[in-house]
């Protein structure tokens, strides 16, 4: 608190990935949160930024609804403001492909 480090900005979406589970839209995380080598991008997004050709890499993954709620509770208990960012309409490649 002395250094005013009480804000957490979460960049949850971009062209390279969708990182938040939306229960009514499972395809966003089924496809948009994974990177692998699939030229048609039916099961994942093409690898970018050195994430590798298989889906078991550091470029894949997302926060589940439960994960996100836990983050919010943890932050609130410590007086940290969580600022979620969902880029739309620009930087929406992951959502569009999904």
Report on the architecture of this protein.
There is one protein chain. The protein is an alpha+beta fold and 98 residues long. It is built from 3 helices and 4 strands; from the N terminus they run E-E-E-H-H-E-H. The strands form 2 sheets. Strands 1-4 form a two-stranded parallel sheet. It has a two-stranded antiparallel ribbon with strand order 2-3.
Identify the notable features of this structure and list them briefly.
single chain; 98 residues; alpha+beta; two-stranded antiparallel ribbon; 22% helix
Number of structural units classed as domains: 1
- Described by the principal axes of the CA atoms, the overall outline is elongated
Query: Structural class, from helix and strand content?
Result: alpha+beta
For the biggest sheet, the summary is: 2 strands, parallel
For the largest beta sheet, what order do the strands appear in spatially?
Answer: 1-4
Enumerate how many helices there are, as a single number. Answer: 3
Residue share in β-strands = 5-15%
Give a nutshell description of this structure.
This protein has 98 residues and is α+β, with helices and mostly antiparallel strands.
What's the layout of helices and strands?
Layout: E1 7-11, E2 13-14, E3 17-18, H1 27-30, H2 65-77, E4 81-85, H3 93-97
Parallel strand pairs: 1-4
Antiparallel strand pairs: 2-3
């Amino acid at each position: 608190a002395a250094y005013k480090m009480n804000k957490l900005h979460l960049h949850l979406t971009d062209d390279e990935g969708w990182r938040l589970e939306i229960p009514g839209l499972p395809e966003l995380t089924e496809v948009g949160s994974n990177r692998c080598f699939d030229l048609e991008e039916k099961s994942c997004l093409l690898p970018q930024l050195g994430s590798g050709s298989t889906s078991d890499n550091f470029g894949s993954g997302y926060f589940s609804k439960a994960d996100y709620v836990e983050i919010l509770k943890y932050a609130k208990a410590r007086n940290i403001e969580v600022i979620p960012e969902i880029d739309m309409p620009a930087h929406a490649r992951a959502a569009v492909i999904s």
